[in-house]
Structures are given as structure tokens and as C-alpha cells.
Amino acid sequence: MFGTIAGAAFAAVVLAVFGSGLPVACAAALALSVAVLTAPKLYAFSVVGITGSALLASCIGTADTVLPALRLLDTVIGAGVAIVFGYLLWPDSRRLPTTARLDAALPAIRAYLDEAIEQPERRVDWQTRRDDAYRQAHLLRAETEAATTELPPVSSVAISRIPVAVESEELVDAITALAASTESGRDVTPERDRIEQRLRLLESLPIHSDD
Predict the structure, then answer these.
(1) Sequence-distant (≥ 6) Cβ neighbours of residue 69 within 8 angstroms
(2) Are 83 and 105 members of one domain?
(3) Residue closest to 156 by CA, chosen among 95, 111, 197
(4) Over the stretch 142-183, which tens digit does the pLDDT of each residue have?
(5) Measured distance CA(192)–CA(190) in Å, rounded
(6) In contact, 4 and 51? CB cutoff 8 Å
(7) pLDDT tens figures, 8-64
(8) 146 with 55, same domain?
(9) Is 210 part of any domain?
(10) Structural domain of residue 44, as residue ranges?
(11) DSSP for 149-170, written as a single string
(12) How far lies 156's CA from each of 26, 153, 162, in Å?
């Protein structure tokens, strides 16, 4: 939105000074070059260039000083519609995404721990449970970090849950180490108790974003 406003403001200044003709064409070309050069990494600057070049290109032959104002009005209306219908009135728009909650990760981690404390010959579905625990833990962290860029209150909840997501990944790694110790025949009781305590702490947390 701010890129659009800046681009429209640039176009308005150029049109107010030059009106139309070659200077406007040069300004449109300059704005387009900014859009092309900044598009890969600097999205906001590319929007400035795209908006400015589009408005100026349409005024090369005949000046239309009202056009930038109309573009700004369209942007404000679009932003208002997005906020009202896409955020305020949309169900679950103020909740963490399901993939950023503990619903799926905790059962997968628990199942992985139950398998890890068994001897290799007694494990039922070791590979699947290990892969599922890692996948759910990584997804939990990735989606939680992504949710920090959303509008409040989702972002504030996501930020508070980052340590939980990190702990889930570290817990899965600890279970993998526990499994290796089990296979070597070592006494894993103290290690298992520590992991169990950490997992119970996670399981005691509210899993939903509005809890």
C-alpha cells in the first residue's frame, strides 16, 4: 500500500510540473527501470516503480492530474475491504493457523518417544513415527515463525510461541539420542525421565491460539 502511495505521489508531482510529453515519458521509463531493478528483492520499491510508470505512461499524450488521486482512492478502498472482510469478519483470521499449533506436533512427538524407549526388535513403526515427529516439529516452527508477520493478535501469539516451537524440535532430537542409547543397551531411565518431563510441560500448554 505504501509503495502505491509513493508511486502515485511521484506521478502526481511529475504531472503537476511537466503535464505531458517527453519529460513524462522519461519519468515513466525511469519508474519502470526502478521496478525492474528492485523487483527480485525490494518489493516495496518495485511497487513504487510499477505504479508510477503505469500512471505516467497513460498521461504521455494528454495530462490527467486526477489519475494519481483516483489510484490512491482505489488503493484505500481495497485496503479497507481487505481489513474488514479479510481480517475483522473472516472466521479464524485472528487465530494461529492449525499448522502453527501444537495439535498435531505433540501426539507425533509422544508416539515417537513411546517407540524410542522400546528395544529395536519391539518397535512397531519406527521409521514412520520418527519421520512424522520431525516433520510436525519442523512444520510447527516454520508456521509459527511465518505467523509472526501477521496482524495482531496473531503475531503477538506467534511470537510468544516461538520458544515452544524451538523446544519441540529440540525434544525430537533428544528422543533420537535416547533411541540410540536404548539400542546400545545403556540405562536410559534418567534421560527418559527428563524428556518425559519436558514433553509433559509442552502438553500442559494450551494448544489453541485463543486459549
Answers:
(1) 8, 12
(2) no
(3) 95
(4) 989 988 988 778 888 889 899 999 999 999 999 999 999 988
(5) 5
(6) yes
(7) 888 888 888 888 788 888 988 999 888 888 877 777 778 888 888 888 888 887 777
(8) no
(9) no
(10) 2-88
(11) TSPTTHHHHHHHHHHHHHHHHH
(12) 45, 5, 10
